[in-house]
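Postdoc handover notes: sequence design on the structure in folder B. Input tokens:
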């Protein structure tokens, strides 16, 4: 871990839906096969970035999808397999418990659908304080696109609509210091056709942050714009 970073053992917890059930809000824009391809590209673009982090010591992928589990192990990441998909909050909480049992002093719950994620920017925020709960809102300021907890069980995650306010409330109730910080590369997640259009435009200008996702979005074309029209 580089100079200026805390020495808390930090595990990145990555809840991953099955590829076949991801990006459901893009039904009507993408076929099931296309959604699968996009979900897999997003997942692979994320897990190849994480080993470059100076503030993350190891990675735990939480999933019920055998394909996700197999590919995670191929990249030498830890895997917590679930019998069924119980939702992001439940998966993140299960991952936090498992990480803590394995010795993690902090968990960073990171999204699989933010392909612009920049590891250096994430390090700069996560590595700032050893005792801070870090809440990263989405671009609308209502959802939560990343959550760092030290200790991992300081409060239960509550992702979903309006989760940012819930996380702030739980952090205050916990009595621990916390920070609500915008992280530019984590602001835009892929949830709606509008998000898909914005990400496609950005990645066509610069595919470096997520080359696999950029390629899939290029192949899909301006599907979201045509559907909206």
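Designed sequence:
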């Amino acid at each position: 871990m580089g100079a200026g970073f805390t020495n808390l053992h930090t595990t990145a917890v990555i809840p991953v839906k099955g590829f076949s059930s991801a990006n459901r809000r893009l039904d009507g824009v993408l076929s099931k096969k296309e959604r699968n391809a996009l979900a897999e590209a997003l997942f692979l673009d994320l897990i190849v970035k994480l080993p470059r982090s100076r503030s993350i010591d190891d990675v735990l992928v939480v999933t019920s999808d055998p394909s996700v589990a197999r590919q995670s192990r191929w990249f030498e990441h830890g895997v917590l397999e679930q019998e069924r998909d119980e939702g992001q909050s439940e998966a993140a909480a299960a991952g936090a418990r498992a990480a803590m049992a394995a010795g993690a002093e902090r968990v960073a719950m990171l999204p699989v659908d933010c392909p612009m994620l920049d590891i250096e920017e994430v390090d700069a925020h996560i590595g700032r304080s050893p005792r801070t709960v870090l809440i990263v809102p989405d671009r609308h300021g209502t959802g939560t696109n990343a959550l760092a907890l030290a200790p991992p069980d300081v409060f239960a995650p509550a992702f979903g609509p309006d989760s940012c306010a819930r996380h702030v409330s739980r952090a205050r109730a916990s009595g621990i210091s916390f920070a609500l910080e915008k992280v530019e590369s984590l602001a835009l997640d892929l949830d709606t056709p509008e998000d898909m259009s914005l990400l496609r435009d950005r990645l066509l200008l610069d595919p470096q942050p997520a080359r696999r996702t950029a390629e899939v979005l290029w192949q899909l074309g301006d599907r979201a714009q045509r559907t909206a029209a």
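Context for whoever picks this up: The radius of gyration is 17 Å. Don't rerun without checking with the PI first.
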